[in-house]
Design goal:
Layout (H helix, E strand, L loop, with lengths): L17 H19 L10 H8 L3 H7 L3 H14 L9 H12 L7 H24 L2 H12 L6 H32 L2 E3 L8 H17 L4 H4 L2 E6 L2 E6 H11 L2 E3 L5 H9 L24
Antiparallel strand pairs: 1-4, 2-3
């Protein structure tokens, strides 16, 4: 065996199906990573403890992975595949739609729409900032994204980056649904020069929230500061995340000259069953329209 191989000799008579062993050991390790977070590597994960916790035969583990490093490489790919759910809150769209329903009458005037946009982006920013940046999955995503390009093994590096890329695209699809529903409801539309592609908005908005989440580690007093602002004649106390998120959103949208306030209010007043679940268009990475089979 090479120096990277298992250090103990495989023993034992119990034969467990290969797929079951693989699934149990990876699931056990994933649970530990999701609970404790990802450090600069997996040195804190002891194979003996993982095997014992998973309840799988040591001999079967040796047959599946030729070394600890081989196991950790596969685990890295699994971690990368599963980090996206911690970055997108599926309930945000429903909660925001219901909030707009409570304030639907204010959508009849440009001033009211601007006021609602400030408030709704502020609420979304603060909820997203707290729920996402405090989650272990998001911290794992940040750690993987930061370290993946410098991983020495090119094959593993490409595997991790591809998994992160797929997670990012899934996140963008989810956020595009959010923006495609909420922005038109409050009387705005995407800037025409963006060619109906909401992904740049989703990327930029996420970068604001996640960047502040990283900064929160070292300068929490500044990141968590709150400010009193004027919102169309009404005072409002907002966070730095809310101010930054709103400014970013406004850089990507413009008032919709064809906005029908009565139609929007009717949809909102109808309750959550009336929410138009607009799906994102299929696109390739160059921004061209994709063709669904």
């Amino acid at each position: 065996m090479s120096e990277n191989s298992w250090t103990k000799t495989a023993t034992g008579r119990t034969r467990t199906p290969k797929d079951e062993v693989r699934s149990k050991l990876l699931d056990t390790a994933l649970t530990l990573v999701q609970t404790n977070g990802l450090t600069v590597g997996f040195e804190h994960l002891l194979m003996d403890d993982l095997i014992k916790e998973a309840g799988v035969p040591r001999s079967s583990v040796y047959r599946i992975w030729e070394s600890k490093e081989a196991f950790f490489e596969e685990l890295l790919g699994e971690v990368a595949n599963q980090v996206s759910p911690g970055r997108a809150d599926e309930e945000s769209l429903v909660a925001t739609w219901e909030y707009l329903g409570f304030r639907a009458d204010e959508l009849r005037t440009p001033e009211g729409r601007r006021r609602i946009l400030v408030d709704v982006t502020g609420l979304a920013a603060e909820q997203n900032f707290e729920s996402v940046t405090s989650s272990m999955q998001w911290r794992t995503y940040v750690a993987l994204s930061s370290t993946a390009p410098s991983y020495p093994d090119a094959r593993v590096r490409d595997l991790i980056i591809e998994a992160l890329r797929n997670s990012e695209l899934a996140f963008l699809d989810q956020m595009e649904v959010f923006y495609r529903n909420i922005i038109p409801a409050v009387g705005y539309r995407l800037r025409p020069d963006l060619n109906d592609d909401y992904r740049p908005l989703a990327v930029a908005a996420a970068a604001i929230i996640e960047g502040l989440g990283i900064a929160r580690t070292t300068i929490p007093d500044l990141v968590e500061s709150r400010y009193l602002v004027d919102n169309e004649g009404r005072p409002a106390e907002v966070s730095l995340a809310a101010i930054s998120y709103h400014a970013m959103i406004m850089a990507f949208i413009v008032p919709d000259p064809n906005y029908d306030a009565d139609a929007a209010i009717a949809r909102l007043s109808g309750g959550i069953d009336e929410m138009p679940l607009v799906q994102p268009r299929s696109r390739d990475l160059d921004g061209h329209d994709g063709i669904d089979d």
